[in-house]
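HUMAN: I'm a chemist; might I ask for a sequence paired with its structure tokens?

ASSISTANT:
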Amino acid sequence: MNATGTETATRAEEEVLTDLPWTVVVLNDPVNLVDYVVWALMKVLGYAKGRATMLTLEAHETGRCVVWSGEREQAEFFAQQLQALQLSAMIEKAK
């Protein structure tokens, strides 16, 4: 490490970069109606109705769907917002 701390800053930046991305996953929901799940994705993620519908149907047909990918803090926020609307949502490290 040099006197300016460049090595430490570089290592911290590399750790943050390798921590990306995280995904928000919505699980199939046998309780809520499709229209409600579509509305929730539109409200929380700002998606257009067509995209929200496509993601909702994917979750319904396959049991789960990745609805967003990016930084962990934002993923946690979106998952919490979806959970507050009674959806089964979680975050995972992208593969």
Remarks:
- Residues 21-93 form a domain with the Ribosomal Protein L30; Chain: A, fold (CATH 3.30.1390.10).
- The beta strands are 22-27, 64-70, 89-93.
- The chain has one domain: 21-93.
